[in-house]
Specification:
Elements: H1 16-33, E1 47-52, H2 58-69, E2 73-77, H3 90-99, E3 104-109, H4 114-119, E4 125-131, H5 137-151, E5 158-162, H6 169-180, E6 184-188, E7 204-206, H7 209-213, E8 218-221, H8 237-244, H9 248-251, E9 259-261, H10 274-277, H11 285-316
Parallel strand pairs: 1-2, 1-3, 3-4, 5-6, 5-8, 6-7, 8-9
Length: about 325
């Protein structure tokens, strides 16, 4: 299996073959997770620490579940009660955790680049569970698996990513991954929520929602991230939904078999109509949640294999075991 990474800090360093390897392995974990007995042993004897500096429901719980199903000892570090709240720096936190000899460290942080910094200070494998506006690699990978299962392929599709692009690490990771897999990507949303330089990213830019959805195979809606906004980015939620929210009228412009996605949590009636979100014939939002556990199991499995191989090589060469 082709997967060389020591850490999973972003989609950008991954080759298409590595993406395919991870998705193929995740398929086996989808099957495992649908069995009555859902346990494997890929992480047996390893310790996983989940370190979330931002609130999370889906990502943290799915990483915890993924680790436990593969046999890891899983610890969720309560940042709100940790020394971080007393002024401890991220580097000191990393050194403290490193002294505990973890094998897998899952980190979410509000600042872009923070997870990369932490990875440079520890001896274990680090997985980025979202850092600022930078990347959210496992979300893009689970979205890719959802698309591949629903459409039968992950190439030469037209994918419309709609909404708050400027504040979305999910949009960035998906744009990178879908581009690597030879898809046509459109970014759709108001000019105030479109990042600077987006036109240079090899994708189409649409301010008109209807033009952006025309003949799309996949419609990926994004949450309006008001907690990251410090100004008047939209006139009102009502006007936002009228112009950029997904409803039946706008969805009718996409292909008849187009699927609807959303990374969650959803603001119903703001970026997506509740009827569309719950339409079992079009919406794959719950499938995304299911795929999230399988993809995170696959990611930790592959990183653990590389970690064990590295440690084995060091031991054989008389090096220091870390």
């Amino acid at each position: 299996m082709t997967f060389r990474a020591r850490h999973l800090l972003g989609v950008e360093p991954l080759a298409p073959a590595e993406i395919t390897t991870l998705l193929d392995l995740a398929e086996t974990y989808v099957a495992l997770n649908r069995r009555t007995v859902k346990h494997g042993d890929a992480l047996e004897g390893l310790t996983q620490i989940n370190l979330f500096f931002e609130a999370s429901t889906r990502t943290q719980s799915s990483f915890e579940l993924a680790g436990k199903r593969l046999g890891a000892d899983v610890m969720n570090m309560a940042v709100a009660q940790s020394s971080v709240k007393k002024g401890e720096t991220l580097i000191d936190t990393a050194l403290t955790l490193n002294a505990m000899q973890p094998d897998l460290l899952v980190v979410r942080h509000p600042n872009s680049g923070a997870v990369n910094l932490l990875a440079s200070k520890v001896n274990c494998a680090v997985l980025n569970a979202g850092d600022g506006r930078h990347e959210h690699p496992t979300q893009a990978l689970l979205d890719a698996l959802t698309i591949r299962r629903a459409k039968g392929r992950l190439h030469r599709l037209t994918v419309a990513i709609c909404g708050d692009i400027a504040h979305s690490r999910v949009a960035r990771s998906n744009l990178i991954l879908l581009g690597k897999m030879e898809n046509r990507v459109r970014l759709v949303g108001p000019a105030t929520l479109m990042p600077r330089g987006a036109a240079d990213w090899g994708c189409e830019i649409h301010e008109d929602m209807r033009a952006g959805l025309q003949d799309a195979d996949v419609v990926m809606m994004l949450r309006l991230q008001k907690e990251r906004m410090d100004g008047g980015f939209i006139p009102s939620e009502r006007e936002y939904f009228h112009r950029w929210g997904l409803d039946a009228e706008k969805l009718a412009l996409a292909k008849p078999d187009a699927i609807v996605m959303h990374p969650g949590p959803m603001n119903r009636g703001v970026e997506i109509d509740g009827t569309i979100a719950d339409d079992i014939n079009r919406s794959v939002i719950q499938d995304q949640v299911e795929m999230g556990v399988a993809v995170r199991m696959a990611a930790m499995d592959l990183l653990a294999r590389n970690l064990r191989a590295e440690r084995g090589a060091r031991a054989a060469g008389g090096g220091v075991y870390v």
